[in-house]
Write a structure and sequence with these properties.
alpha/beta, Rossmann fold, 5-stranded parallel β-sheet, 9 strands, binds adenosine-5'-diphosphate
Length: 225
């Protein structure tokens, strides 16, 4: 069977605390596809991205991402996989407050010995910071940035490893219309340059027409939840 770039099958997931349960019979996303994920707050959109990224582990079923069965890997292998193959723009950004813009963009290289930080990577980080409009603020601590600027740092950081799979959790949620366009342009452009698969959670319905496909998480889980 030819496998899709992202594939979830008969997945069941539950958090240790609370009673939220997610069941996904099937989800396939082809390589290079650009997909938006919509659904009400609390419906499991972030959880879905975390399953694809190997941050969350299903209690049943399989998650294949980029040809790897991530749901079969142990914690260390899942982390290495994620660091190398997945770029994730977290809903809450997850920036390190005591670091500046450029160091936050380079954070994956500082935290993960499987990645090698060299001049080429540094130059790429600077270019990305420039492309999100932060070229003049490379050394500024992120506590001294606006919410929208922090979001753009998070986007640049997700792109710096040139990941095959790009996951963005409401990446335009805090931005004005001009910066929404800028951030989405950048995600699409970089995804296109590397034929990356792009999954974007969004509440911006005016942005949906730019995606090849829209997945409504309510329909994805059907009446099985
Ligand atoms: P969405 O991104 O669609 O708003 P989430 O995937 O973040 O939804 O959350 C789905 C449900 O899981 C929510 O009810 C949320 O409260 C719950 N949840 C999220 N994270 C955790 C956690 N770490 N532990 C327990 N419950 C959680
Ligand atoms: Mg969410």
């Amino acid at each position: 069977m030819a496998s899709a770039h992202l594939e979830l099958r008969d997945v069941r997931f539950r958090y240790r605390d609370g009673d939220f349960a997610l069941r996904i019979p099937e989800l396939r996303v082809e390589a290079g596809e650009r997909v938006a994920v919509i659904g009400p707050s609390g419906s499991g959109k972030t959880t879905l991205l975390h399953l694809v990224a190997g941050i969350a582990l299903p209690e049943q079923g399989r998650v294949h991402t980029s040809g790897i069965e991530v749901s079969a890997l142990d914690d260390a292998a899942r982390r290495d996989f994620r660091v190398r193959q997945v770029g994730l723009v977290f809903q809450e950004f997850e920036l390190l407050e005591y670091l500046g813009v450029l160091d936050n963009v380079l954070l994956p290289y500082r935290l993960n010995p499987v990645l090698r930080l060299d001049d080429e990577v540094r130059a790429r980080a600077v270019r990305l910071a420039e492309r999100v409009g932060l070229g003049q603020k490379l050394g500024r601590r992120v506590t001294r940035l606006s919410h929208g600027e922090r979001q753009r740092v998070a986007v640049a950081r997700a792109l710096v490893t040139e990941p095959e799979v790009l996951l963005a959790d409401e990446p335009t949620g805090n931005l004005d219309p001009a910066n929404k366009g800028l951030v989405l342009d950048l995600l699409f452009e970089v995804a296109g340059e590397h034929d990356a698969t792009l999954l974007v959670v969004t509440h911006d319905h005016d942005l949906l027409e730019r995606f090849a496909r829209v997945i409504d998480i309510g329909k994805l889980i059907g009446d099985a939840a």
